[in-house]
Every structure is written in structure tokens, then in C-alpha cells.
Specification:
There is one protein chain. The protein has helices spanning 8-14, 17-25; strands at residues 43-47, 53-56, 60-61, 69-70, 79-84, 91-96, 102-107, 117-120, 125-129. The protein is of the alpha+beta class. The structure holds zinc ion. Zinc ion (ZN) binds at residues 47, 49-50, 52, 96, 98-99, 101.
Amino acid sequence: MTKIDKTEQQWRQELSPEQYHVLREKGTERPFTGEYDHLFEPGTYRCAGCGAELFVSDAKYDSGCGWPAFYAPAGEEAVEEETDVSYGMMRTEVTCANCGGHLGHVFPDGPHPTGLRYCINSASLKFDEE
Ligand SMILES: [Zn+2]
């Protein structure tokens, strides 16, 4: 259940083609190409689809994987996690709890203190500088 109910037509009008592909079609941007891969300024990462606060810069780290990586979301309710078995892999998909947009995946190989790596597409984020 998401709080925002828009038609695919509406999303297509509001989002850039790349944002639409990632958020609504569960696409993945090419590694090392994202706008926020190497950004480490203090601030808040919001959902590019609905503006909800998803991650904060304090939890961002350089994982070397080619996408922005965080060890935790901004809050327990910020994101939803669901098992994704597409492409013959068993992964955990991460979506925005507010609009249902696809963000990326979470892997159990992150740093202290959570041991998690939220591997998130830059295209699904909008950075708000502090
Ligand atoms: Zn959202």
C-alpha cells in the first residue's frame, strides 16, 4: 500500500525518462554514471518521485560498487523491502514507502553498524543540500 496513486501517464509526464525507467520500470542506471555516486556533501536524499526523505548523508559511504550506497535508510518507515527473484538472482528490492517507486537493492555486505548496503540509483534520488 502506497500513499500516492498516480497513473503511469502522470508519472511519465512528471519524471525524466531516466527517472521514469528506474522508479516505475525498476530499471538500473549504469554503474559509475550516477549523479550522486561520489557526492559526500551533508544533506538529505529525497525520493525523485515524491520528495519523501529516504536517506541522509551521514549513512552514505563509498562502497566502490558504482552506485550511491548507504548503510541505513533515513527512518524505519522510509523504505519498503521485498524479495526480488528477477534475473535468476535472489535479491531484496528497496522501494519508496510513500510512492512505491523502485530505488535499488539492499545487500548484507555493508559496514558497521548495520552490516547492510543499500545500493540505490542516483536517478531515483534528489539531493537536498544542508
Ligand atoms: Zn517516493
